[in-house]
């Protein structure tokens, strides 16, 4: 039985997922800083390009701009602390800081997952029921769905974080990861850790439901697209879904690797690679996917970055 005076022993956690300072972790700081800068600039560019171009004020692009805005804060919840740890010999985070990092990182991730599911349903209605689409997906409903995704994403995690905050942590305090996450933190609790399995099941069910909804939406979309008689019509229909499908596969692919393993241990290096994949690389590629695969987006970005630009910049809209 752990006494009250012992449960307050751990006031901070130590990250052990980083390479040692003397082993060249400083060399990782520059590429991670460049990636983080690109994520912020790229996603804000997409966000403002949509907001400032009246031609893109429709549900699909509004969802994309909201997703890009969430990506900015999703990465800010973890990467700045990673950068700080890479140039510090003391890789620690306070108990409160750890709880806040978990809450904001996963709340924003939940919001993005719900929004990706909403975007899949939006594409399904647009392609499978185009005549009724304008009356179904109204600007008001679009705003409600975007706001609802964010609100639900933040509210649903509150009970879990509140529960973790009541657990006793009396040592050890090493988190075998590069940021605070549920499983590595719960393993340090001085109490029955059987709740980890329940946590894994809850996360797995949420991920599987979202993936099933998106998969069923795309099965319906592909079925309708294949019935389009002209090749040009099929290509145009596929192009409107390609960006979302790419982001969906990257987001849920990396999340599934991380949270559908039911506490099965991975080698520490592989654990870190998977964490970097969904916390850093997925947000890095999202603005590239949305801009390079979309002519309208490229035109909007050109207008935003180069207002009144000369003809030699016309390649941006090709």
UniProtKB/TrEMBL annotation:
SUPFAM superfamilies: Family A G protein-coupled receptor-like. GO terms for molecular function: G protein-coupled receptor activity; olfactory receptor activity. One of its GO terms (cellular component) is plasma membrane. PROSITE patterns: G_PROTEIN_RECEP_F1_1 (PS00237), G_PROTEIN_RECEP_F1_2 (PS50262). Keywords: Cell membrane, Disulfide bond, G-protein coupled receptor, Glycoprotein, Membrane, Olfaction, Receptor, Sensory transduction, Transducer, Transmembrane, Transmembrane helix. It comes from the Eukaryota. The keyword Methyltransferase does not apply. It is a multi-pass membrane protein. The chain crosses the membrane at residues 26-50, 141-164, 201-226, 238-260, 272-292. It is found in: Cell membrane. PANTHER family: G-PROTEIN COUPLED RECEPTOR, OLFACTORY RECEPTOR. Belongs to the G-protein coupled receptor 1 family. Putative odorant or sperm cell receptor. This is Olfactory receptor. It comes from Nyctereutes procyonoides (Raccoon dog). The lineage of its organism: Eukaryota, Metazoa, Chordata, Craniata, Vertebrata.
């Amino acid at each position: 039985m752990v006494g009250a005076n012992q449960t307050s022993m751990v006031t901070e956690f130590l990250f052990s997922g980083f390479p040692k300072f003397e082993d060249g972790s400083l060399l990782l700081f520059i590429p991670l800083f460049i990636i983080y800068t690109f994520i912020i600039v790229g996603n804000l560019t997409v966000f403002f390009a949509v907001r400032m171009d009246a031609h893109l004020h429709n549900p699909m692009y509004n969802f994309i701009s909201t997703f890009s805005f969430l990506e900015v804060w999703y990465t800010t919840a973890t990467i700045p602390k990673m950068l700080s740890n890479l140039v510090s010999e003391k890789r620690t985070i306070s108990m409160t800081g750890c709880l806040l990092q978990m809450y904001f990182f996963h709340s924003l991730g939940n919001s993005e997952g719900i929004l990706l599911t909403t975007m899949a349903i939006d594409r399904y209605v647009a392609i499978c029921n185009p005549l009724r689409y304008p009356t179904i997906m109204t600007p008001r409903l679009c705003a409600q769905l975007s706001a609802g995704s964010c609100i639900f994403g933040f509210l649903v995690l509150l009970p879990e974080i509140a529960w973790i905050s009541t657990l006793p942590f009396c040592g050890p305090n090493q988190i075998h990861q590069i940021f605070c996450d549920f499983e590595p933190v719960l393993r340090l609790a001085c109490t029955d850790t059987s709740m980890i399995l329940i946590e894994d099941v809850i996360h797995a069910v949420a991920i599987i439901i979202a993936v099933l909804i998106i998969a069923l939406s795309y099965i319906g979309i592909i079925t309708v697209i294949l019935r389009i008689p002209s090749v040009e019509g099929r290509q145009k229909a596929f192009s409107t879904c390609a960006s979302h499908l790419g982001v969906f596969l990257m987001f849920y692919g990396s999340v599934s690797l991380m949270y559908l393993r039911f506490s099965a241990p991975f080698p520490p290096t592989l654990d870190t690679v998977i964490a970097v994949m969904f916390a850093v690389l997925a947000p890095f590629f999202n603005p590239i996917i949305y801009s390079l695969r979309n002519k309208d987006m490229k035109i909007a970005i050109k207008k935003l970055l180069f207002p009144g630009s000369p003809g030699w910049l016309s390649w941006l809209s090709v």
